[in-house]
Amino acid sequence: MTRTLFGTDGIRGRANEEPMTDEIANKVAKAAARQFRRGDHRHSVVIGKDTRLSGYMIEPAMTAGFIAMGMDVVLVGPMPTPAVAMLTRSLRADLGVMISASHNPYEDNGIKLFGPDGFKLSDEIERAIEADIARGDGNGRAAPSALGRAQRLDDAPGRYIEFVKNSFPRGMRLDGIRIVVDCAHGAAYKVAPKVLYELGADVIPIGVAPDGFNINRNSGAVSPKAMQRAVVDHEAHLGLALDGDADRLLVADETGTLLDGDQLMALIAGAWHKTGRLKGGGIVATVMSNLGLERHLAGLGLRLARTAVGDRYVLEHMLGQGFNVGGEQSGHIILMDHSTTGDGLIAALQVLAALIEQGGRTSEIGRVFTPLPQYLRSVRFQAGTEPLKARPVARAIGEAEQRLAGAGRLLIRKSGTEPVIRVMAEGEDEAMVRAAVDEIIETLTHAVVDA
Description:
single chain, five-stranded mixed β-sheet, six-stranded mixed β-sheet, Alpha-D-Glucose-1,6-Bisphosphate, Chain A, domain 3
């Protein structure tokens, strides 16, 4: 059975439309409870969310579902996705839920589920939850005397702040470092500035005024220009941009130049390799990562293991092969020594530690390798259509592959979280790379319109 409800990062869709309705959220809660009620102990679930307006709809719907199944609910309010993973383990909960659509606009929302170990659920368990929902299984509801209870964990932010700070080298501080941090009006709008401030930094916070509608809007890792400008305007040493649920990080150096996930992984991997902390003989990244990263690592005697796009696939490979650093070019960085999922704040502190240890400007140290020209464009399509199967599209792709053969590579994929097709090309010749992508995008656009 294939998954139809779950994508590469949980369930995601437009708020108040299937599958992101209160009814489905309630059913997901009940089905997940049936999967994770194991033993006779009092079961519990941690629920966090980001700052979207629709969180007020999804959170109570899921809370009611879990309570109906006899599970206690711990509500932590707006908190980063990695904080929910951490609190699920720390509180010995049976399940963790993050209500977020990550980097998507406020109109969307999503549901991410974590097991008691703090890791995202396997494909097998997600398929079991979907099958349970499809059956309409009404079994397992608690007796009136065994209904669950809900409580709010008021000190959840403080617990997470201390957890993140403990990942920073003991004895090291950020005194004298001016940092712009853009929280995308999202889940980290309170905790991120506090972490940096408590470690001694001079903090310039932006994107910290959520109103339910402005998450990720012209801010954060999805749109880092505001952060880049603020770095220059405030003469900061660097800038940090998180996304809506703070599991993604991009950095700007003191000139406002952006450093993507590939550069950040290279910096962290190099620092950890020098101190003997790097495991697996390299790092794990996706097919989207730049060939320049692969060449840089090879020069250090390290390897780059590639997976399909999606941090779940990166994590699976890391666990299976013993790596402790992995991530995506987009800024999802998983540091297994500290967290079970991507954590933008923990990654930021490891970047800062590497910069402090090496000394010098961020622009000198943060740009670790010279990337090959890489060009990415996207086309949104109508759900249920298959524009990639159109003959003109297949012909355009074939012609681009022929031109790039031996001189670069072409990658075309559907997003696992939204109805978008992404076209990426990479090679030594930037003009050739751009021409290949533009021609495919133009053909795809016509196919989408005609569908």
